[in-house]
């Protein structure tokens, strides 16, 4: 469980807006593990992207349009993956900052608690389902 019971009294209470010290510690461990996984995946993707570029530089002689197109598509996919991983890693960092500030698990728009089920699926969520749906409606 990432976020749930607000402990108001008792041992370790009143940490991070009503979460116990133990709850905050568990959340921190989960978010740190997520960040570490994403960071490792990002570093691996950076290395793979670098290898692709070296191969492309050394192996471009005699390429026809199809070869060039394939290499361009592969390079674009690798760059897109890097952007996605970097974005997800940044989201994990922001979630850890919000935890330290005491705002993790609360919607950044309405301040209502984000449902536990949403945080379990998407630990970096910063908005409740209602506010997220409103944002997507306005954007679309």
UniProtKB/TrEMBL annotation:
<protein>
    <recommendedName>
        <fullName>Zinc finger DksA/TraR C4-type domain-containing protein</fullName>
    </recommendedName>
</protein>
<dbReference type="InterPro" id="IPR020458">
    <property type="entry name" value="Znf_DskA_TraR_CS"/>
</dbReference>
<keyword id="KW-0863">Zinc-finger</keyword>
<feature type="zinc finger region" description="dksA C4-type">
    <location>
        <begin position="107"/>
        <end position="131"/>
    </location>
</feature>
<dbReference type="InterPro" id="IPR000962">
    <property type="entry name" value="Znf_DskA_TraR"/>
</dbReference>
<keyword id="KW-0862">Zinc</keyword>
<feature type="coiled-coil region">
    <location>
        <begin position="28"/>
        <end position="55"/>
    </location>
</feature>
<keyword id="KW-0175">Coiled coil</keyword>
<dbReference type="GO" id="GO:0008270">
    <property type="term" value="F:zinc ion binding"/>
</dbReference>
<feature type="domain" description="Zinc finger DksA/TraR C4-type">
    <location>
        <begin position="102"/>
        <end position="137"/>
    </location>
</feature>
<dbReference type="Pfam" id="PF01258">
    <property type="entry name" value="zf-dskA_traR"/>
</dbReference>
<keyword id="KW-0479">Metal-binding</keyword>
């Amino acid at each position: 469980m990432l976020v749930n019971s607000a402990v108001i009294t008792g041992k370790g209470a009143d940490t991070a807006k009503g979460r116990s010290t133990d709850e905050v510690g568990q959340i921190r461990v989960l978010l740190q593990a997520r960040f570490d996984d994403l960071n490792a995946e990002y570093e691996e993707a950076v290395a793979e992207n670098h290898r692709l570029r070296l191969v492309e530089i050394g192996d471009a002689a005699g390429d026809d349009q199809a070869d060039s197109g394939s290499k361009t598509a592969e390079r674009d996919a690798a760059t897109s993956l890097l952007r996605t991983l970097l974005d997800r890693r940044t989201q994990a960092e922001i979630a850890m900052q919000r935890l330290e500030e005491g705002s993790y698990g609360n919607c950044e728009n309405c301040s209502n608690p984000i449902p536990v089920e949403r945080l379990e699926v998407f630990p970096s969520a910063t908005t409740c389902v209602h506010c997220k749906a409103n944002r997507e409606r306005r954007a679309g």
